Amino acid sequence: MDLFTLVSLILIIAMLIAAVVAAELKDLLSAAVALGVVSLIVSILFYILQAPDVAITEASIGAGLSMAVLIFAIKHTERWEK
Amino acid sequence: MKRIVAAILAILIFIVLALAFVKIPFGNINLSDYHYYNPITDKQTSDSVPQHYLVDGKKDTGSTNIVTAVVVDYRGFDTLGEVTVLFLAATGVGSIMYIFEKEKRRKVRRANAVVETASQLLFGFIVLFGAYIFVHGHLTPGGGFPGGAVIASAFLLLYLAYPRFHAEHKTLNVAESLAGLTFVIAGLLGLLISGSFLYNFLPFGVPTYLFSAGIIPVIYVAVGVKVGSELTGIVDAMMGVRE
Amino acid sequence: MSIAILILQILGYIFIGIGSFFLLLASIGLLRMPDVYNRMQTATKATTLGALSVLFGVGLLDLAWMPMSIVIALFILLTAPVGASALARASYKHGIKLWKESVVDKYKEEKEEE
Question: Are the beta carbons of A32 and A74 closer than 8 angstroms?
Answer without folding.
Answer: yes
